[in-house]
Amino acid sequence: MDNNNVPFPLILASQSPYRRELLSRLTIPFECLSPDIDEEQIRNQLTQQKCSIPLIAQGLARAKCQAVAQIETNATVIGSDQLVEWQGRILGKPHNMQAAKKQLQDLQGQAHRLITAVAIQSALGLLEFMDITTLHMRSLNEGEIIRYLEADSPFDCAGSYKIEELGISLFEKIEGQDSTAIIGLPLMELSKNLRRLGFQIP
């Protein structure tokens, strides 16, 4: 690592290939470590506490970040979580064709929210922020849904679409501040906060 550009080791508390690719755009050396947490348990606890869906996302991002920061005490650690909210419900990853088809049948012709929360733990303390994007999916018939799922296989993506790939064709309007947040990490706000911590980002 170039110590002139990196004040502390930077760690992404995630094994997501999407977040790894996004963070690499900032040209800062970093490592990826998977946080050892039970996301479902934390989500259930926050739900029982009647937290809003944005606060659930923020709590999960914080838990991921702090789990790694407790081990890598001399590092700056980034944690992130993303939830799809539709009609007051959280939509998870479909994992298979049948569940993905059901999600797209529910979302088609309607708007839903994509909530991306980020937590950064450093020697200066904890920084947190959030990006909320509203996506308007066009009306889709069954044939279009099946053709899309066969082409993109978005079974590891909440909402059952890969918007950075063919999934963009499913939408008629997107309302948000940062397109990278949709993929998993809002780089504009992240780079601003990393600069505040001393990282040099062109």
Which terms summarize this structure?
single chain, 202 residues, alpha/beta, Maf protein, seven-stranded mixed sheet, 7 helices, 7 strands, 36% helix, 24% strand, globular
List the helices and strands and how they pair.
Layout: E1 10-12, H1 17-24, E2 31-32, H2 39-48, H3 53-69, E3 76-86, E4 89-91, H4 97-107, E5 111-122, E6 125-137, H5 142-152, E7 171-175, H6 179-183, H7 187-196
Parallel strand pairs: 1-2, 1-3
Antiparallel strand pairs: 3-4, 3-5, 5-6, 6-7
Could you please describe the fold and organization of this structure?
- With about 200 residues, this protein is of the alpha/beta class.
- It has a single domain, classed as Maf protein (Alpha-Beta Complex), CATH 3.90.950.
- The protein is built from seven helices and seven strands, in the order βαβααββαββαβαα.
- The radius of gyration is 17 Å and the shape is globular.
- The two termini are about 15 Å apart.
What's the CATH topology name?
A: Maf protein
Fraction of residues in H or I helices: 25-40%
End-to-end distance, in Å? 17 Å
What about the largest sheet? 7 strands, mixed
Report Rg: 17 Å
Uncertain residue ranges: none
Q: Quote the average pLDDT.
A: 93
- Determine and state the CATH class: Alpha Beta
- What is the domain total for the residues? 1
Total number of helices: 7
Q: What structural class results from the helix and strand content?
A: alpha/beta
Helix and strand sequence = EHEHHEEHEEHEHH
* Proportion of strand residues: 15-25%
Query: What is the CATH architecture assignment?
Result: Alpha-Beta Complex
> Total number of β-strand segments?
7
